[in-house]
Amino acid sequence: APRLPFVRVTLFALAMIGGIWPGRLVAQQFRMESVVRLAGKDDVLAENLTLFDERQVYDFSFTPDGTRTLLEIVVHDVARQKFVLLDVPRAMRLELEQFQLVQMLEQLRVQANEDAGMEWLVHPAMQEEFDLDAGTLVLASDKIRYSAQCERPSDPAMLGALYGFMDQFTLLSASDPRRLPPFARMQFNQALRKYGFVPKSIELTVSGGGLLRPDLHVVSEHTLINQLSSTDRERIDQAREYWVNFKKVQLTEYRQLEQVADEAEPKAVRN
Q: Between 116 and 9, whose confidence is greater?
């Protein structure tokens, strides 16, 4: 199911490749609900709940069938600059350090640069249009188009945490070879940060010219709520318990990369 394309060398290199230095979280506690659909359709492709709890962010992925069965929890530990991925059905835990993701991103860039057909994914020539009155932001190349309906959050103090979340989860996608390279999304994140807005909805169109079959056209909707509920806090406690008790595995086992090697096409990530 499509998930937001939200995708690594040295921290200096990280700062240089597009402003994705880890976002600072203040003592903020709030939530974001996200739903992804095929454009023009009502069926849900992906559903996520993201909880911002001071120095950590917890992203819960649910089945899109209405049962809200928990599939995965991704924890971004901002202070320690690491991710903890929790596969709930398989009771597995993967830990990825910031520098490992930097290396993966650079490996992805090198591999794609060696294939002329991947140029549009690694170095997308994005044109930007922003309408302040309408609150719309468009970044588009000849094959990739992001169109967002934007707003300012009710509490401006949320912005640092939100931008950090978008940047870091975009970066995380470099750890999954089935996902689209993150470079276009990184440019989109930069544009949002420049204008001080956050997206209410994002429409993503990718016309891969044969790389994607069929082409990708999805819409995500995002709802911010400036507090955590008692149920949210129970979910955080559950995630911490899984973090301690799940078996720690390596990337190859967690991502099932042997199986991925047999797959012919990349998949999108949460929009």
A: 116
Do 210 and 26 meet the contact criterion of CB atoms below 8 Å apart? no
174-186 pLDDT, tens per residue?
999 888 889 999 9
Query: 89-93, 179-183, 211-215, 262-266: which has the minimum mean pLDDT?
Result: 262-266
Q: What is the pTM of this model?
A: 0.83
Burial (CB < 10 A; 0-12, 13-18, 19+), residue 157, is middle
- CA torsion sign, 172 to 175 to 178 to 181? positive
Percent of the chain with pLDDT over 90: 65
Residue 232 banded pLDDT, cuts 50, 70, 90: very high
Q: Is cis: bond before 2, omega within 30 of 0?
A: no
* CB < 8 Å & 24+ apart, contacts of 236-240: 236/51, 236/53, 236/58, 239/58, 239/60, 239/73, 239/75, 239/86
